[in-house]
Amino acid sequence: MGPTFAEINHANLIHNVNLIRKINPKLKIMAIVKANAYGHGDVEISHTLNNNNIDYFGVAFPEEGIKLRDAGITTPILVLGAQLSEYFKEHLQYNLDITLADPYQIPLLKNLCRKLNKKANVHIKIDTGMNCFGFSYKNFLDYADKIFDEQYFNIVGIYSHFSSADEDDLSFTMLQLKRFQKIQYLIKKKFPEIIFHFANSAAVMQIPQSHFDMVRPGIMLYGNPPGPDFKLSWNLKEVMRFISKISLIREIDKGESASYNRKYTANSNMKAALIAAGYADGYNRYLSNRGEVLIQGERYKVIGNVCMDRFLVDIKNNPDIKIGDEVVLHGRQLNEHIKIAEVARRIGTIPYDITCQVSKRVQRVHLY
Ligand SMILES: *Cc1c(COP(=O)(O)O)cnc(C)c1O
Question: pLDDT band at 360, cuts 50/70/90?
Answer without folding.
Answer: very high
